[in-house]
């Protein structure tokens, strides 16, 4: 019997991991070799299980999936990564690919697309939707700037802080979530106000909540 390709799941929602595990373990050529809800667990499992692919969510328990992708790329360059996320691919797909992912797929996609993404990446290909592929090609051909809106101009960490503000977290809670200092989050907030052309913290909070709600409707 041929050896199955090993897949590690990194998602902080147990039900999502269970759904993915059931889907993947039904395939004759794939198997789940481990699960993790955060970056430290993921690195421990990668070292032990040596997966062929890691499937990563953007939002993780106590950290960022983008940061995890960058760190896996730096320390385990032979491990391929796919992002499976609820977040809008138009904002995150290019960031994930730059960080080192080989695919990006939305959680609302049909299960067959998830399996297509896994097999495409195992074959050494990239996997992104036609919509995002076309948008990236247009940017290249037309020479347009990479960012089309103020939010797209944010760095990965600035966007993460903005997203957490939209979730209703305080500065202290964001610092604890990201495991950084309180003043570091204040610095990011100041940069957000400058880049988004907002005058004060109240405007920033309202804009973050408005943006978060708009993302939920997509």
Kindly describe this structure.
With 218 residues, this protein is α/β, with parallel strands linked by helices. It folds into 2 domains: 5-139, 3-Layer(aba) Sandwich (Rossmann fold), CATH 3.40.50; 151-216, Arc Repressor Mutant, subunit A, CATH 1.10.10. Helices cover 55% and strands 14% of the residues. It has 10 helices and 7 strands. It has helices at residues 14-25, 39-49, 65-75, 89-99, 111-122, 130-142, 156-166, 171-178, 182-195, 201-216; strands at 5-10, 30-36, 53-56, 59-60, 63-64, 80-85, 103-106. The strands form 2 sheets. Strands 2-1-3-6-7 form a 5-stranded parallel sheet, sandwiched between helices. A two-stranded antiparallel sheet has the order 4-5. Helix 4 (89-99) links the parallel strand 6 and strand 7 (103-106). Helix 7 (156-166) crosses helix 10 (201-216). The mean pLDDT is 87.
Please estimate the helix content: 40-55%
- Strand fraction band? 5-15%
CATH level 1 class label of the largest domain: Alpha Beta
* Structural class by helix and strand composition: alpha/beta
What is the count of distinct domains? 2
Strand order of the largest sheet: 2-1-3-6-7
Contiguous helical run count: 10
* DSSP strand count: 7
On the 0-100 scale, what is the average pLDDT? 87
Q: What gross morphology would you assign?
A: globular
CATH architecture of the largest domain: 3-Layer(aba) Sandwich
Series of secondary-structure elements, N-terminal to C-terminal: EHEHEEEHEHEHHHHHH
Task: Predict the CATH topology of the largest domain.
Answer: Rossmann fold
